[in-house]
Amino acid sequence: MKKRFFILFMLLWAYPCLYAQLTVKDYHLADSTEKFRNLAYFTNVRPAWIKGTSSFWYSVNTRKGDEYFLVDRSRLKKTMPFDQEKLCKSINEAVGKEFKPYSIPMRNLTFSKDLKEIEFVIDTVKWKCNLRNYQITMVEKVERFDRRGGRYWGESRDELGNEPVISPDSIWVAFIKNYNVYIRPRNGRGDEQQLSFDGSEGDLYSSYISWSPDSKKLATCKVRPHTKRFFYFVESSPDDQIQPRLHKREYLKPGDAVSIRRPVLFDVTEKKQIEVNSQPFEHQYDLGRIEWRKDSRAYTFEFNQRGHQVYQVVEVNSNTGETRILVDEKSKTFIDYSGKKMRHDVNDGDEIIWASERDGWNHLYLFDGNTGKVKNQITAGEWVVRELLHVDDESRSIIFAGSGRNLNEDPYLVHYYRINFDGSGITDLTPEEASHRATFSEDWAYFVDTWSRVDLPPVTVLRDASDGKIVMELEKADISDLLDEGFNIPEVFVAKGRDGKTDIWGIIYRPSSFDPNLKYPVIEYIYAGPHGSHVPKNFRSYYGFCGLAELGFIIVQIDGMGTSNRSKAFHDICWQNLKDAGYPDRIPWIKAAAEKYSFMDTSRVGIYGTSAGGQNSMGALLFYPEFYKVAVSSCGCHDNRMDKIWWNEQWMGYPVGTHYEESSNVVNAHKLKGKLLLLVGEMDDNVDPSSTMQVVNALIKAGKEFELVVLPGMNHTSGGRYGERKRRDFFVKNLLEYDTPDWNTIEGN
User: Is this structure's pTM higher than 0.85?
Assistant: First the structure.
């Protein structure tokens, strides 16, 4: 009897989680982490230079709310640009609402040159305020603010939809009629004249016409349109009717035919077409960016070969139609045209500044604009150029953003540099060990710089752009309230990757109730999209996973191989291999962290993500089930053949071969081990919702157990409030092995 009691006691002691339960109060405490968003002050400085002046204004979050300041660069003086109390009172009277002085929803704020008037938009109206008497007048109605922009991103351009184009000398108007190019006198005196004669519905001339600066030539493309693909989804529960509604989106997928654009040239003076040999450029993903030289001697276009392994800048002679390749970029894997393409033509094309990874790192090169040969490499070393900001042709100097140049520093931290065309005189304008964000003045002589790290609150200053010298301190963050409320600043952690040599960087986030003597399951928040790097580098007072962590988890976020902003070799891991997702780096990173910190329990590791992260998180259970035990996948691109053409062909290549199947969660669904929750918005027009349903179909056919949540009316989403609760419950049940609240018995949950 005593022996049985002792065994039962030991079982209860060893597995207390089997008899534990989280309460609604625990979930409310998790939700209360939302307060962290508003407990850090002077962290979000939003500057804007005032055109034609030496001044700039900025707004910043303070204890009062959003406050506005005006800085005179020449006098180094900071003042209040207006009385927010008076401004708010006038706005409320004009708009008929009750805004508060430090939370007025103004956008597109601009100052007059004399700083005595401001214009701003509230809702759908632009207003003007006289700052001498605070009189408000309406300027005009504006279109409703839409963060997604106008046209759906997947829609192809209507090649016949552009308006007629007036020549620079205002004598001619060029237009398309019956699929051909025509011109007519702008003054209406004279007949229209046809310049092309072979256009047809299936092989038409584009209405996006570009005139030469001297108005003697015009360029466009002859286009063979592609057959449009549409995907369809059902809105099951529309607000305005009982019956469901069918929606469709134009949406090309990998392997689909694309429109073929062939460059063409016309002599307006002679009323004739000049032949351009377009055959070398017809195996294309895209051909565009037609730009004339200022002296009208030629125009250039950019050619992106299908498969993204050849990218060229091509010049067309305006007299002969002969083509000449000025930049010829080639790669055995892929050219990251969507993330790293940078170009500046110097002095009307005498030289070209171009970004390339040809030496294994993304750097700037100076090309001869006449021969197409590299004159010199401008930047060099085991670091990367992130953005080309400004080129001064006269002084032959460049301002750019880069990362990884400073030794013994996180290689993702962004700095700003100045350098000469010949590669000399490189100057770090932002030397502090942090990630910087700069806003430059109109003349590029000064800039506002905000720097921070995830473990370093922001500082904002005004700097001289010639040498980076700080000329004025503006703001310094105050996070005392945030720390008082229990916010744990994430720890930056680095460990070796799959090769035992390469540093892999990430963060570790602990709950506010963290106790180093306890054992915590580990959850990785993943997004391994190769188009960028994704671990935060700037300070944040709140993370989307704060509430999840509060329930008793350690959250980690990692940039493994296959993501961007490191070497070309680091990036190339993803090529035709998206299933890799950096897992051979992520797993040793987590193990190394757990070796240092005994509170991290690597026998209980979960993972979750959305979109590409949804593909990644499910892939963890298919390809690495010995390590990852529980996954939540939201709106996943589970088969790259089902997702948007531009993103997937960029990394998986063309044509669509067996390597697409090898990376498919659908094809590999039968390998599932562990616990899986799938979430999908029924109206997702970013990743086709059928991608999730196809993986569901494959799991059912394989006899696998999983959970599925379809979210009516929701678009591309991590799940919203309900999805977050399902995600929390799933990890609590399957990693903590705790019971969760019976939500159906709880009012107002």
Answer: yes
